[in-house]
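look at this one:
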Amino acid sequence: MPGRQAASGASGATYEMAASLSAFGDAPQRASVSVRLETPGQRLGRAAKALVLFWGVAAGCVFLPGLHFVLVPTFVVVGLLRAAAHFRDMQIVTRVHGPCPRCSRDQDFAAANRLSTSWALDCPACHTNLQVSGGAPAPSSD
């Protein structure tokens, strides 16, 4: 596919795709997005981490008198929902690289979220809220 470079390794295949960074009132800038295609084992590991984290917080809330009636069931349910969401995420954005539209500084932006058509980032240099757009479905594995 044009604009995509695929590489595979022990941690699953990765590819790069073109995207744009935009900020309110400034012209969009070109950026590149690195995406990792996760294996079922990696997705299960991420789901298990989320479940253990939220259920650990729920276990700690048992000792809060009165509040435990609300907090424990809430964190148990949220843990299940987050684990299910992590298990469904097949494509994870590992890196966004490009210039900030506001301060024009070329940099890597931290990203560890699922791939979608657009999502928000913050510029660490000028603290501008940026919008990344251009995410597309993964290349077919035919």
User: Anything to note?
Assistant: The chain has a mean pLDDT of 83. Residues 2 and 17 are 9 Å apart (CA to CA).
